[in-house]
Design goal:
There is one protein chain. By secondary structure, the protein is an alpha/beta fold. The chain contains twelve helices and 17 strands. The strands form four sheets. A seven-stranded mixed beta sheet has the order 4-12-11-10-7-5-6, sandwiched between helices. A four-stranded mixed beta sheet has the order 1-2-3-15. The protein has a four-stranded antiparallel beta sheet with strand order 13-14-17-16, covered by helices on one side. One of its GO terms (molecular function) is pyridoxal phosphate binding.
């Protein structure tokens, strides 16, 4: 399809999109080419942690672009060294590999675990992941994922992934054998509808993997960089994994991801891992700017407080309309609608100028900027409440 302004058919058609074309963003708001304003509670699926086009990121991009674009990953560059050191200083890890996407970081984590197995566990290569998990769209990360829609796609899948049940430690233990090298999970499963692993389960998982000499891999693509009120989600459980992946929020809107590992787990040898744009100075300059903002204690405290406010307001909406519970942590939350009406609500909210997300047909997911204001939360809640009232959702709930 082509309009007088936009040739839609030139872009590969890989998902359903509304016809609005966005041209500008600031904070929690986007504007399309007709100047209509939208309140954004999706933020690129938790990507724009500081909102749209924040000055800190714009300034970092402009400054670094005038200094150095890339010298090639065959050489060190100052910005990537600084960001790697900052991440190590603020985490439980010793080394960092930078990537361009969460899927690439997770692919690297899978490769690193298999390398560890070949060196230290007699060639063990199997990784236990979880039903409902989502780790990316490469062949290996799709195979690691527990998303039902992926099962018939792009066969044959990459072998070596067994699926346990989230929050069921016995289901994990049952799958461990001599070929097992690692356990990999999202601490909150985002794509399947914001289903959190309990802190106790994460603690049990750490103890189990240590008892069997396995690596524990946390996919913090969506939960990392302050999204749940801690810089990294593993801090809530008082444990530390051996490997962690970051994406989305670490770039604040630009393509940046990271694979972090302890010294014990970081066993890549020269030639095992690489990439043309890995550690790109411009992207790493943005990462430094994001970490500087998000890493401030007052910032993380505000995320926790704002998350509690959003959770409370969603619970009130649920009570008024006879809906289900609110799941998640910090500013990664979901509302259980108890009915398959989520896509319709998203469409109506879009028309009303509010961007929401439906990861499942009965679930709304909320991923606003980490600096979202109380007034913006109230604006979104008013819109959602009006849509539910108009739809008579409460009367249709059995």
């Amino acid at each position: 399809m082509t309009t007088a302004t936009h040739p839609y058919d030139a872009l590969m058609d890989i998902t359903a999109r509304p016809k609005a074309v966005f041209v500008r963003g600031a904070g929690s708001y986007l504007w399309d080419d007709s100047r209509k304003r939208y309140l954004d509670f999706v933020q690129g699926w938790a990507v724009n942690c500081l909102g749209h086009s924040p000055p800190a990121i714009a300034d970092a991009l402009a400054t670094q672009a005038k200094r150095l674009l890339t010298p090639s990953p065959a050489f060190y560059n100052e910005t990537s060294l600084k960001l790697a050191q900052a991440l190590v200083a603020n985490s439980a890890f010793d080394q960092v590999f930078f990537a361009n996407s969460g899927a690439e970081a997770n692919e690297g984590a899978i490769k690193l675990a298999r390398k560890y197995g070949s060196l230290h566990k007699g060639g063990a290569f199997e990784i236990i992941s979880f039903e409902g998990g989502f780790h990316g769209r490469t062949l290996a990360t799709m195979s690691a994922s527990g998303k039902k829609a992926f099962e018939p796609l792009f066969e044959p899948k990459v072998a070596g992934f067994k699926k346990a049940k989230l929050n069921d430690i016995a289901s994990v233990e049952k799958l461990i054998n001599d070929n097992t090298v690692a356990v990999m999970l999202e601490p909150i499963q985002g794509e399947s509808g914001v289903w959190p692993a309990t802190d106790r389960f994460l603690q049990e998982l750490r103890a189990l993997t240590e008892a069997h000499g396995l690596l524990l891999i946390f996919d913090e693509i969506q939960t990392g960089m302050g999204r749940t009120g801690k810089l990294f989600h593993y801090e809530h459980a008082g444990i530390a994994p051996d490997i962690m992946t970051l994406g989305k929020g670490i770039g604040g809107g630009v393509p940046l991801a990271a694979l972090l590992a302890t010294e014990r787990a970081a066993c890549f040898e020269h030639g095992d891992q690489g990439g043309t744009f890995n550690g790109n100075p411009i992207m790493c300059a943005v990462g430094l700017a994001v970490l500087d903002e998000v890493g401030k204690p007052d910032f993380l405290k505000a995320v926790t407080e704002t998350g509690l406010l959003l959770e409370s307001e969603l619970q009130k909406v649920s009570a008024r309309h006879g809906l289900g519970g609110v799941r998640g942590r910090g500013l990664l939350l979901a509302l259980d609608l108890k009915l398959p009406i989520a896509p319709g609500i998203v469409a109506q909210a879009f028309e009303a100028g509010v961007l929401l997300n439906a990861p499942q047909v009965d679930t709304l997911r909320f991923m606003p900027a980490l600096n979202v204001t109380r007034a913006e939360i109230a604006e979104m809640i008013d819109c959602l409440d009006a849509i539910l009232t108009k739809a008579g959702a409460a009367r249709r709930v059995a």
